[in-house]
Amino acid sequence: MWDYSESAIKKFRETSNEEYPRGVGWTDMFGHQANARWMYNFHEAVANSVKLVKECLRNESVDSLPVFRYITRMNVFNVMNDFDGSGLELLSKELDILHIDPYPVSDKGYDEKVIPRDMTYLEGFARRYNKPIVSWMQAHVYGNLKHPTPENISRMMEQQKQFNINSVMWLGYGYNNSGNTFPQNEEAWETVSIEHSKFKNQLLQKKNADFALIRPYTARTVYAEKQNTADRFLTDYILESALFDYHLCYDPFEPLSCETLETNELKKYPLVIAEIGILNEKTLKPFVLSEVTTILTIAGAEFDKGSFEMLSIKRILDNHQDRKLINEYSKIELKNNTEIIYQINGNPIAWRNGNIIFISRLPENNLNGLAVLLLGKIFEK
User: Fold this and answer.
1) Dist. CA 219–CA 214, nearest whole Å
2) Which parts of 139-227 are beta strand (E)?
3) pLDDT tens for residues 325-363?
4) Residue 313 burial by CB count (10 A; 0-12/13-18/19+): exposed, middle or buried?
C-alpha cells in the first residue's frame, strides 16, 4: 500500500529528483539514492506515527504515559524489518522505551549468539538516545521455537543483564493450543521468580562504545539474494568478529547518506566501521575530516571520479556499466606507495589511505578471513 500510495509518491517527489523506484530492490535500475530515499521516507512515516500517538496523549493530558512497541519484525539485521517499516534509529528517537525480542531457544537448542547480536545493536541506540530498555523474553512455542527450560531461563537472564536492561517482559503465545511456557511449565516458572529476585538487585554498569557503526540507507537498501553485499559483509562478518572474537560493543548510526554525518560526532569514537553506498567527496568528507581510524566498505557503491584523490585511486579499468559501480569487474589501479592490505591476483581489495582502510570487493570464498584480517590490523598491533 505504501509503494503506490499518493502520499508516498508525493513525499518522494518533494524529497528527491530521482525516478520513483517501482519494484523492491531494483537498485541497478533506479539507483542507490532513489531506493534509499524511498525506504527512508517509509521508515520516517512509521516513526512519525509514534509522534502522532504522543500528540494524542498530550491532548488528553496523559503525556507522561510512556509509548513503546517492539521495533523489529525479525532479528535486527533481517530484511523483513525494512519492509515492515522498522527503521531502528528513527523509531529509537521517538519511542520512550526501546523494546526487542530475541529468542534463542529452538529445536536446534540454545543459540548463544541470538541475544548478544540483537541486544548489542539495541543497546547502542539506548546509549545514544538515553532510552531505557525492556527486553521481551521467550516463554512460548511458535514455529521451530521451543519451551525454555529452567536452565534456558537462567541463561537468557544472564545474557540480557549484560546489556543494561531496565526491565523484563515474558512473551507467551501459541497456536492450536500449543501452550505457553508459563504457568504450565512449573519449573521454568519457579526459575523466573528466582531470577527476577536477583535482577531487582542489579546495578546498571555504564559502558562506552568501542566503535561507531555506520549503516546508511544508500548501502543497506542494496539487496542481492545470491551474492554478498556491503551490508551483509558488515553485519554477517565484520560485526560477528567484532562481537564474538573481540567482545566489542558499538553505537549504530542509520543515516540516509554518509554526507549527513557530523564529523564531531565521529570524533567521539576510537574507531569507525562503515559502508557508504554512494561514493563522492561529500560522502567521504566526514570520515576524512574526523581523522578517526575507519574501516570503510565501498564495494557495490556508485562512484564519481572526483573522489579518486581521497581514495588514493589512479583509475578504474574495465567497468562496463552505465551506472558507475565499484564491483567485481572493477580493476582498480592505486597511486604509487599506497599501502595494500589485501589483494587477489594483483587486484587490490583492501588498502589504506590516511586514516581510512577501504574495501572495494568482497571475495566470496574468504569473507570471514577478510573480516578477521581487517579487525586484526586495528586491535592486534
Assistant:
1) 10
2) 167-171, 211-214
3) 887 778 899 999 999 999 888 889 999 999 999 999 888
4) buried
